[in-house]
Structure formats: C-alpha cells, structure tokens
Predict the structure of Carbohydrate sulfotransferase.
Amino acid sequence: YRRLHTKETRLSKFNQTEIKAMLGSYTKVLFVRDPFHRLIATFLQGMGISPSFSSFVQEVLDSGMHHGSVAWQPLVSLCRPCLIQYDYVVMFGFLRQELGHLLRRAGLPVGSLPPQLSDSQVQWTYRWLSEQMFSELSAQQKKQLSRFYRWDLAAFPFSSSFLSE
C-alpha cells in the first residue's frame, strides 16, 4: 500500500477509503490467546508491580477497559475482529501446526519453523499454571474477570478457559 512507510501505524489515522484499500491488500492474521493465559504471562514477565497474582488481577480490573495495558486488554477491543475480516485466526496452543499451514500457503519452507516446545507441552503447562493462579483469586475476582473478557470468550473458541467456567 502506498502509505506503508509512513510513521502512522494505527488504522484510525487513515480515512475509510485508505483503510479499505490497505485491508484489502494484505493477508490479515490474528494471533489469539486465552485471556487468562495472557494475564498469567503478563504477571510472570513482571509487567505488573504486584507481589501476588491476586493483587495483579485487581490492578487489571481497577484499570478498566480503557486505561489498562495492551498486554491485558480484551483482544476484541484491540483487534476489532467484528470490523476487520481476518484471513487467518491462529490460536495459541496450536501455533506450530497453524504456522506450518500459513508458511505453506505463503509458499515458504515449513522447515524454517524454529524448534520449540510442542503445542501439547505448552497447553499442559498453561493448564497447570491456570489451576494454580485461578485458585488464588476470590469468587468476586473470577466473576469480574469473566465479565471483563466476556467479548473475547464469545468471539473466540476458548472452551477450556478458566474464565468461561
């Protein structure tokens, strides 16, 4: 697209005609991850200054939808999947399998994927972490998190998410 190399990176900086032209000229890939797993990863990476996961979650809930970090904001508010027709939606936990498919579709060698943990190992690890972290939360925090991420849970198939239980 002709304005590809401008400093503007947000779609909101462009007019509707430019947005339509840009989105029509790219292959759009959305990488999604269970919102509870995103919270765990953010906490473990030290992006919150809280001493416990429960207090970190309370900070997230207190910050609300519009004042929080992009690390934990609902994906629906960040990526607008109802407005942008993504060509591919790749779920974390199926990353290796999905990336292989995308590379084949793009005509790139699948063997160029870096060796990593298998998807099943990643899923098992996050399941274990989720159990541990979820048990630290109060019933009210669990309910508030489910409400905070309700649109993500409705938009994407996070059937095994602790927040959808």
Notes: The chain has a mean pLDDT of 81. The first strand starts at residue 29 and ends at 32.
